[in-house]
Every structure is written in structure tokens, then in C-alpha cells.
Design brief:
Specifically methylates the N4 position of cytidine in position 1402 (C1402) of 16S rRNA. This is Ribosomal RNA small subunit methyltransferase H. Pfam families: Methyltransf_5. By secondary structure, this protein is of the alpha/beta class. The protein has two domains: 58-155 and 272-349, 3-Layer(aba) Sandwich (Rossmann fold); 178-268, Orthogonal Bundle (DNA polymerase, domain 1). Helix content is 46%, strand content 12%. The chain has 15 helices and seven strands. The chain has a seven-stranded mixed beta sheet with strand order 3-2-1-4-5-7-6, with helices on both faces. Strand 1, helix 4 and strand 2 form a beta-alpha-beta unit. The structure holds S-adenosylmethionine. S-adenosylmethionine is lined by residues 53, 55, 77, 79-83, 100-103, 106, 130-131, 150, 152-154, 177, 274.
Length: 351
Amino acid sequence: MQQETPKPHKRRVRYKGKYPKKFEEKYKELNPEKYQDTVEHVIRKGNTPAGMHISIMVKEILDFLKIQPGETGFDATLGYGGHTKAMMECLHGEGHMYATDVDPEESAKTKKRLEEQGFGEGILTIKLQNFCTIDEIAKEAGGFDFILADLGVSSMQIDNPKRGFSFRADGPLDLRLNQQKGISAAERLDQISREELAGMLYENSDEPYCEEIAKAITDEIRKGNRIDSTTKLRTVIENTLDFLPEKEKKDTIRKTCQRVFQALRIDVNQEFEVLYEFMEKLPDALKSGGRVAILTFHSGEDKLVKKALKAGYKAGIYSDYAKDVIRPSMQECAQNGRARSTKMRWAVKAE
Ligand SMILES: C[S@@+](CC[C@H](N)C(=O)[O-])C[C@H]1O[C@@H](n2cnc3c(N)ncnc32)[C@H](O)[C@@H]1O
């Protein structure tokens, strides 16, 4: 029998993994102009393309705001600029919009993108400022006919592991909307006492395991193990909840991670304090008959907004306000999972 000559061994090209390793290279959607079909495919599947944010309840907001050409408006939370653009389109080139955001990285990109789409400084003034400075901007603008605040974080911020907003990806435990200001969540944890941390988790996110998690985190830090990455925080939470029955463990850990990350984000960005200030200054920033719509994403925000609008209505500052929240349609929630927790509230300033 003739023996087959063995084929020379050919080394396989190293498999680099299904996805590129770096976030910048990760998705084609990051270059939406070049890969329009990829972006559309991702949206059709109910996901948010990387580097983009899908604006929520646009129709409901525009229906309520009833924007007319010549009016002056304020978008307190510019983000990707989707709402700002939709509102500017209602002006038909007459009038002006002001917009704020505290995120230098994303607001610079949005400014450039909107300019390229024809929304330059003639119609839009973007300020890298906290929305709690609404009084200063209203003074400059001469008051607003309409105002929108779409609270919280954008998809670009959540999806960028370097920002530390998501427990699903490894990154530094930062959680600041503006990484150039204040202290990161990791630095905050270095300094905080067990009692204060438990209180923060409870106050900001109604965390039922606040005591256990606060103890585990502060014990770990005392031992010299800093909690300075999203994975380290997630691991502490997983270990703390390891006693849970198997069938509920996975889901409870996921929800607890969401609440703990949210509580820290609220804390390092002083979200309740600035929202409170914004709601206090809001009536004076609106012209008479002016309209405001606010989107909230968790019960703490919603309670604060509801209380302020109700108090303003009772005091005769608002002629009407949303007694019930407006929720996104089931269709919108199916198309954009991030819309599911949204609640919209509104008010009209008395004439
Ligand atoms: C949900 S996103 C807004 C998305 C936007 N409406 C759109 O259509 O693309 C919230 C944005 O508000 C910004 N933000 C949060 N708190 C802020 C504050 N106190 N002052 C100014 N901007 C803030 C965040 O940095 C983020 O970009």
C-alpha cells in the first residue's frame, strides 16, 4: 500500500475573535454616514447603534409643545441632539434654540454633527453648562416659549466602557457625566463610610440590600482592595448576593447592579440637587403660556418633578400640569428597549 505523503502543517491564521477588541473599532455603526444600512438594521432589531442615541417620545413631546416658527426654546439635555433637531425643524428657520449638556466629549460631537446638517449658530446656541443654570440662559434668551428636559444618560455614555456607566462592560468605575470635573465613583467609594453608603443606595435607588452591599464594599476597601472598576463592583455585588436561591439569583443580581450603579451615578453627578434647582428656576424661565415637557427614568426623578409641578399648579404658576404620567407606546418600547422606563410629565405656565 502506498503511503500518503503527509501535507506540511499549515499554521492557521490567529482567530482575532468575532468582534474587534477596541470599542472604537467595535461597531460599524460608529461611522453612521458610511454604514447607513448597518445602522438601520441595528435599529430594526430594537437595539441602539453604538455611538448613537435614539430619542424617546418625540411625537408626544412635539404634540404637547406645539412649537411655532419664531419661538425661543431650550433643550436642557442636548445628548445626541435628536430632540433638539426635531424641535428646531418645527421652527422652520425662524426663532432660536438654546441647549445645554455637561458632557464635553459628546456635546462637541453633537455640535459638529448638527452644524453639518445645517443647524449652526444662527438657530442653535449650545452651552457646556449644567441645566441648573437655566436662569442665566433664560435671561440671555429673554425667556422661553418651550422647554424640554430628557433626564439621565445617553446611549453613547452608557455604551462607552471608558465612562463606567454599565456593569455589563469592564471599565473604570467613573460614572461622571463630565469626566473633567468632580470625583469619580471609585474615588467616592474610597472616602465613604458604610452608613453613608447604605443611605445613598437606599435614598437614590431604594436598594433593598443596601446594608449588605455597603458592608461588603467598605470591608473590601478597608482590606486595601479598591473598587475602581465596573467588574470589581459587579463581583462584590455577585458575592454578596450569593446566598440567594439559584432560580432568582441571576435576575436579582442584574437588577441590583442596575440600582447600585444608578445610585452612584446620581451621587457623583448630584443629580437630585441640580434637578431640584432646575425645577425651582423653571417657572421664571418660561414666558407666560410657555410649555415644558420632562422625561424621567426612575421613581426618584419622577417624584421630584411631579411634586414641583403640582406645587406650581397649586400656587397658580402653572395653568395646567400632567396629573398622570404619559408613557411611550408599546410599539416604541418594542423598538427601543431603553424607552421602557420613561415617564413624561408636562406643565403650562399661567398667562
Ligand atoms: C437622555 S440624554 C439626552 C438625549 C437627547 N434628548 C437626544 O435626543 O439625543 C441626557 C443628556 O443630558 C445630559 N445631562 C444630564 N444631566 C445634566 C445636567 N444637569 N445638565 C446638563 N446636561 C445634563 C447628559 O450628559 C446626557 O447627554
